[in-house]
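hiii so um. not sure if this is the right channel but i have a protein structure encoded as tokens and i wanna go backwards to a sequence. like what aa goes where. can anyone help
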């Protein structure tokens, strides 16, 4: 007997099957599979919600506004994916690591390609604003061997919570960004400023949605790393300040326990004297473990 959905007759009960059957001729098998899974779950969700036509129209308007907010430097759909936990879920699925390896987290919208490479120990803070911080550690493989020549791309917000690209003309270009290479013993070191929590861009529809859901837009203080070495999987990650007030409620779900760093306040004159700073500073010591390809 021919089934309803094979004849193309649509009902509340068979809705997802009718759509899936219509997609049977897709040339790209992966596309067909993914679209049909999506349709199955979206239809199930709409049935569970008993969505009204008014609510569906509001959803369409929200997505339209999200699209209108996008331009060359603002990607509101990625922000939507971030605050819904989708970015972190895709990241988790694509970056399963063996135990002992450093974990990944979201890239975020503020990475800049082709930042100048700096000598080990250089200060990436170009405007002298903020509380001084030194970050150092080693990059190792999963057997504990140091990796030489790892490209370390770091970037952070200033202590007012803005990246240089958000404050063109206020912060110098490349402020609080740098590229470094590990030494033969896998070590790295750079200087910057103690980061502070900041809001993700919240002047668009995603910010309004967060407000309506009773959520704040803040990310806890962190700095970003991309670690790249021949023969190893590239690692995109962050280091977080565990004492930050938003550490347990990151707007984009990027925090993992293994990504917490300890910020020690160094006040001893002999340690200050060898640091390149002229007063107390924050020290973060953090090693990373990369996985061979
Ligand atoms: C960031 O950490 O730079 C970031 C990540 C996701 C959304 C907005 C900002
Ligand atoms: Fe960030």
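sure thing!! here u go:
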């Amino acid at each position: 007997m021919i089934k309803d959905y094979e004849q193309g007759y649509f009902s509340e009960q068979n809705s997802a099957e009718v759509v899936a059957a219509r997609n049977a001729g897709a040339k790209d098998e992966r596309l067909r599979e993914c679209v049909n899974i999506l349709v199955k779950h979206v239809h199930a969700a709409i049935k569970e919600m008993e969505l009204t036509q008014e609510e569906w129209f509001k959803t369409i308007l929200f997505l339209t506004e999200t699209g209108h907010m996008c331009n060359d430097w603002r990607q509101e759909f990625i922000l939507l994916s971030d605050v819904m936990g989708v970015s972190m879920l895709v990241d988790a699925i694509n970056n399963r690591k063996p135990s002992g390896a450093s974990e990944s987290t979201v890239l975020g919208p503020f990475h800049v390609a082709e930042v100048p490479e700096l000598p080990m120990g250089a200060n990436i803070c170009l405007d002298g604003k903020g509380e001084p911080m030194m970050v150092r550690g080693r990059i190792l493989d999963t057997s504990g061997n140091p990796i030489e020549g790892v490209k370390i791309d770091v970037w952070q917000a200033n202590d007012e919570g803005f990246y240089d690209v958000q404050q063109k003309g206020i912060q110098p270009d490349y402020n609080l960004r740098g590229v470094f290479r590990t030494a033969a013993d896998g070590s790295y070191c750079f200087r910057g400023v103690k980061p502070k929590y900041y809001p993700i861009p919240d002047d668009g529809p995603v910010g309004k949605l967060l407000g309506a859901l009773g959520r704040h837009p803040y990310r806890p203080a962190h700095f970003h790393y991309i670690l790249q070495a021949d023969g190893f999987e590239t690692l995109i990650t962050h280091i977080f300040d565990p004492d930050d007030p938003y550490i347990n409620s990151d707007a984009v779900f990027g925090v993992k326990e293994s990504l917490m760093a300890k910020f020690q306040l160094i006040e001893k004159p002999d340690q200050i004297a060898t640091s390149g700073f002229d007063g107390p500073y924050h020290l973060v010591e953090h090693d990373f473990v990369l996985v061979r390809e």
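oh and Residues 108, 110, 157, 219, 222, 224 surround fe (iii) ion (ligand 2) (CB under 6 Å).
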